[in-house]
Amino acid sequence: MSSDSLVSSSAAASTPSAQNARAGRDARTDTIFRTVVTIAGWFVLITLLGAAFSMLWGGREAFHTFGWQFLTSTDWDPVNHKFGAFVPIYGTLVTALIAMLIAVPVSFGIAIFLTEVAPNWMRGPVAAAIELLAGIPSIIYGMWGLFVFVPFMADHIIPWLNANLGQWPIIGALFRGPPLGMGMLTAGIVLAIMVIPFVSSVMRDVFLTVPVRLKESAYALGGTTWEVVWDIVLPFTRSAVIGGVFLGLGRALGETMAVTFVLGNSHLLSASLLQPGNSIAATIANEFTEADSDIYLSSLIALGFLLFVVTFIVLAIAKLMLKRLAMREGN
């Protein structure tokens, strides 16, 4: 194409009519894009509300029959059609709490090691190993817990806890019981092992976002590694770290298969962490196919709705904490 043709084409493209046509195409494209992403955003909200409403509707018979006693009763008698959600709710919260008490400090240590202490040649392989642990299906953790960790707990850990902590006042009641291996403590530890890769990966990623010049300035002033982490890294990433912790907590609350294998699946309420218990997710997974009456099935669906509510409350608390931290930091 000659230079004269190029000049004529450019002149034609810059005419008012061409500019108006392009502006019209841009406006239509922008409208289509806005519509598509709006539908995607509303899809999440509609799906969430639909799932919650369907579980509430499915569990309406249980809520209508038992009322508020469904939340406080420890009964779970399918033969006589008496159901209460207190034991599964208690087991869900206790196992998740044990898991987070173990997972948060361990994940914090892993993240600090990978970002501040480990040599460069080691950071990549260890980070890859953590991501691989996060990708292992939960049923594998459950099978490992049942065949390997439960016997280890029964033979070594629980007898030691009985002998050394079971006689203590107040907290001794938490560590008394026969060495069955299965129980809320075992389930909490297995949950912690599952949650650690998620929390540590989030912490590692947010720790890497801290500007290097901030840390180097602290080191130049004579700060130790711990002082740099505590005074520079953590304040800079506090909100993201808390968000990662609550993300792990949400996974611990809803975990099903791993807990089902090692929790013992007992509806008897016990103060001891060494005794079998139950959780909401494990109860639904174990008994949904055995529900032989409408009230039995409705009670299990009602448990699902309660798990939804518990998870929603936990995540709402996390959101409020993050908002308060942002306000305190002036953001």
Automatic annotation (TrEMBL):
It is found in: Cell inner membrane; Cell membrane. Signal peptide: none annotated. It is a multi-pass membrane protein. Pfam families: BPD_transp_1 (PF00528). Its main location: membrane. It comes from the Bacteria. The chain crosses the membrane at residues 32-57, 89-114, 126-151, 182-203, 295-318. Residues 89-318 form the ABC transmembrane type-1 domain. GO terms for cellular component: plasma membrane. The keyword Cell inner membrane applies. GO terms for molecular function: phosphate transmembrane transporter activity. The keyword Transmembrane helix applies. GO terms for biological process: phosphate ion transport. Residues 1-22 are annotated as: Disordered. Keywords: Cell inner membrane, Cell membrane, Membrane, Phosphate transport, Transmembrane, Transmembrane helix, Transport. Part of the binding-protein-dependent transport system for phosphate; probably responsible for the translocation of the substrate across the membrane. Belongs to the binding-protein-dependent transport system permease family. CysTW subfamily. NCBIfam families: phosphate_pstC. This is Phosphate transport system permease protein. It comes from Pseudolysobacter antarcticus.
